[in-house]
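Thread: quick sanity check before group meeting

JM: Hey all, I'm pulling together slides for Thursday and realized we never actually wrote out the predicted structure for the chain we discussed last week. Dropping the sequence here so it's in one place. If anyone has concerns about the input, flag it before I start.
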Amino acid sequence: MSQSFFFGSLGLLLFVVMSCTTQHSAEPTESLIDVPPGFPEQNIPTDNQPTAERIRLGKMLFYSTELSRTRAVSCASCHDPSRAFTDGRTTSVGVEDRVGPRNAPSLANVGYLPYFMREGGVPTLEMQVLVPVQEHHEFDMNMLDVVERLRQDVELQELSRAAYQRDLDAYVVTRAIACFERTLVSGRSRADQQQLTEQEERGRSLFMSARTGCTSCHGGLLYTSHAFTNNGALATYTDVGRYRLTNVGSDRFMFKVPSLRNVGVTAPYMHNGTIATLREVIDRYNRGGMGHPATDARIVPLGLRDDECNDLEAFLRSLTDEQFINDPRFRP
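JM (edit): ok, ran it. Output follows.
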């Protein structure tokens, strides 16, 4: 699919969906999002405040294969709760076993992200829902056809009216899925609760140190700066990254910095899933990358000993939120 067709088609869909307005405003119930200690409230659109009905509808749609042309793929196909909502594949597989170009990102804390897609081209979670629906390698479906299918389901129609006071349409589909995804908050790892072993504490000290510089890209509550850069972990790139969106030369091979929360269960790594293990990622950073000319200047040889690499890996694995990946509320 050409870049101009992809973004042109998406733009048309966004115009259709965003031009809709609700006829009534659903009153928010008490908070239905489990916010961990230290986490702020999410910045949620006024027309999509969480209610039990909206979350329930969004969850049903998230797991529905009716969104894909062959009725074989759902959002959950690429976003498994037990893997922090990734899929364990190098790159994701869509309808007719079409192999996509990119590794599925985690949906943990997706409600806190300032923009979406690895090139940052989609500004809201509601808009992002449209991308996999029409993407050739994912659902390969027209949203109008999706709506026509879903309207045949009496339960979905009734829930749509209860949640948004309107018949099920593209506006409802995008907002309900986004509403469910905003409940996917992860912030109760052992690292968050200060329950680290001695080895993990050593790894934490290394991670936070000027010696490694990890926090220059992976700092803050979500362990990401949300910036776009090239980490030098690969020697060559076929995906042009943010350049695909901007056509600015300096954005070539630049990708959004991912969160490291739950990184121990989201292998394989990088935008194309070509690094199989967390230790291999650490080793590549330790050597100062693979020499790609677009590598960020902060990527330099670290000189970590083998035992220090072990400590760093142990800390990163302590960022796994067992409560989150096993939460029955996120299961079908």
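AS: nice. Confidence is low (pLDDT under 50) at residues 1-9, 19-30. The first helix runs from residue 3 to 18.
JM: adding both to the slides.
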